[in-house]
Amino acid sequence: MPIRIDDALPAKQNLEIENIFVMSKMRADTQDIRPLKIIILNLMPTKLETETQLLRLLSNTPLQVDIDFLQVKSHESKNVSKSHMDKFYYTFDQIVDNRYDGMIITGAPVEHLEFEDVDYWDELCDIMEWSKKNVYSTFHICWGAQAGLYYHYGINKKPLEKKMFGVFPHKSLDETHPLMRGLDDRYYVPHSRHTTVSMHDIARVKDLQVISYSDMAGVHIVSDMVCRQFFITGHSEYDRDTLAKEYFRDKGKGLDIEIPYNYFPNDDERLVPEMSWKSTASILFSNWLNYFVYQKTPYDLTEL
Question: Is 128 exposed, middle or buried, given 0-12, 13-18 or 19+ CB atoms closer than 10 A?
């Protein structure tokens, strides 16, 4: 089914090339149905790439999906034009009176900082607090997941001895959980982070459940018991070449970066990476939208 986005958004052309059904707002407004309203807080520096990655996965939904993009006002994006941000992104004060079926909070390259030292931390806290009453289900990704666990439950991130970097095997810890439906016994997810969250710390919170885990990468997906908050430490939304771009960028800077685990065939960086996580990404996002947004959110969002 279609996703509903602005006709001028750069991601639209890329998605149409992939034969993904993208509907213009003009055409969508003529249909007598209520679309799912999803807001994406995009904290990634590579905003254009992240827009396309997430929109691609949100296209596999049971209903029309109406997308809004949100930015933090207290931080200036350096890798995308101000005109793009002004045209396609709202600030919190512009949407504070809105309600949404679902929300995605992306990762951000600030994990080396304490949460309180991030320049937009106070604003992010305001947004996460607002989401508890104005969003039915929130999907936190990577640093966004760590920030959410810290804000909502006081679980702090822990530094790793070396970067968790590559494509790692995972297993479900609750195969009956609707978010896990359709996944293989072993499925693969990219990770790219210097910090982690402890299984022990999560186990001490009665309202939380770890539903996906990797013996190598650790905790992958955490859910609250009512399934309105999901915290995902990996990047299943990544493109085939995303880790390669990070690797060659850091290598070009002379940084101490290891080749991504289980990524390049035979660990040969000259070869095209095999994409082993595409179906996992599609299933996770589809399950979230279907079971925890579409089937549970009230038709009238004022009833949230």
Answer: buried
Of the pLDDT bands very low, low, confident and very high (cuts 50, 70, 90), residue 10 is confident
pLDDT digits (tens, 9 = 90+) for 177-189: 999 999 999 999 9
Q: Tell me the DSSP string of 198-250.
A: -HHHHHT-TTEEEEEEETTTEEEEEEETTSSEEEE-S-TT--TTHHHHHHHHH
Question: How many residues can be counted in the chain?
Answer: 304
Helix (H) or strand (E) holding 164: strand 158-172
Query: Do 185 and 221 form a contact (C-beta atoms < 8 A)?
Result: no
**Which tokens in the block code for residue 297?**
């959110």
| Exposure b/e, 132-151, CB count within 10 A at least 16 = b | eebbbbbbbbbbbbbbbbbb
Closest C-alpha to 141, from 58, 230, 75: 230
Q: Each residue of 54-73: pLDDT tens digit?
A: 999 998 766 688 999 999 99
Please state, in angstroms and rounded to a whole number, the distance separating the CA atoms of residues 287 and 60: 10
Q: Which residues contact 174 (CB under 8 A, 6 or more apart)?
A: 180, 209, 211
Give the helix, strand, coil percentages of the chain, each rounded to 5. Answer: 35, 25, 40
How far apart are alpha carbons 186 and 178 in whole angstroms?
Answer: 17
Active site residues: 142, 235, 237
d(CA 300, CA 296) in angstroms, rounded, equals 12
- What is the C-alpha separation between 76 and 120, in angstroms, rounded? 10
Give the Cβ contact number of residue 245 at 10 Å: 13
